[in-house]
Amino acid sequence: MDKKEQILNALRELFKEGKAGTASVSDIAKKAGIAKGGMYYYFRSKEEVLDALVSQEYADIIKACNELVEQSDGNATHKLALLLHSYRNSYVDPSLDEYLHMPQNAAIHQKSLAQILSALSQVVSQIIEQGIEEGTFICEYPQEYAEIILSVFTFLLDPGIFPWTKEQRAAKMKALADMLEKGLCAPKDSFQFLYMPD
Fold first, then answer.
1. Of 130, 152, 147, 138, whose CA–CA distance to 184 is shortest?
2. For an engineered disulfide with 48, which of 43, 100, 148, 196 has Cβ 3.0 to 4.6 Å away?
3. How many domains does the chain have?
4. Based on the domain organization, do 34 and 65 belong to the same domain?
5. Considering only CA atoms, which of 113, 117, 97 is closest in space to residue 160?
6. In this structure, are residues 106 and 92 in contact, taking their beta carbons and an 8 Å threshold?
7. What is the pLDDT along the chain (198 residues), one digit of tens a residue?
8. Residue 37's CATH number
9. Which residues bind DNA (predicted)?
10. Half-sphere exposure for 48 (CA within 13 Å, toward CB)
11. DSSP 44
12. CB 121 within 8 A of CB 67
């Protein structure tokens, strides 16, 4: 394992122990088993370490969602259901998630949401294009539709930003399903998976 990975793992461990919020660069270096000066060779500040860790965590989620879609030979609707289900059920350490939702970490949180939206919207756009080829969707703006879908999942449904009730979330999913069905001229109930229980 290289030193950079050691440092990220050290911060990850400090999150699990509930100590990351108050940890200094020295604490991270000590946990990683390297000299404080060695830390500065890889990262200029604790914020840079956090930024790299968050980026890595979300890159793993993006990779898992992408691989799931690539391995599927299902139709476009099935692939979209797979991707969104995988994203909704992806795991982020609760202590890291809580830290990201603190007001002072808004910039890093916004960057992570943009990372997901940008990467996964490419995959969703390809799925929509597959649906067009299959004749189940009609859409002039696959990329823009993809970005709108992902903005709902990355922002509107983020419980750390909007603490919706279960009923409110379900209503929003029904509205999204209705919009997609009409907007993509898809067969009736194509997007039931958005609000039906798993």
1. 138
2. 43
3. 2
4. no
5. 97
6. no
7. 688 999 999 999 998 888 887 889 999 999 999 998 888 889 998 889 998 998 898 899 999 999 999 999 999 999 999 999 999 888 888 888 888 888 888 888 898 899 999 999 999 999 999 999 999 999 999 999 999 999 999 999 998 889 999 999 999 999 999 999 999 999 999 999 999 876
8. 1.10.10.60
9. 24-43
10. 10
11. S
12. no
pTM, to two decimals = 0.86
For 74-113, give the secondary structure using H, E and C. CCHHHHHHHHHHHHHCCCCCHHHHHHHCCHHHHHHHHHHH
**191-194: long-range contacts (C-beta < 8 A, 24 or more apart)?**
191/77, 193/77, 193/81, 193/84, 193/85, 194/84
* Residues 73 and 124 placed together within one structural domain of the fold: yes
Same domain, yes or no, for 182 and 123? yes
Phi, psi of 32 (to 5 degrees): -80, -15
Measured between alpha carbons, how far is 146 from 169 in angstroms, rounded to an integer?
20
- In the three-class reduction of DSSP (H, G, I as helix; E, B as strand; rest coil), residue 145 is classed as helix
The domain containing residue 178 runs over which residues?
50-194
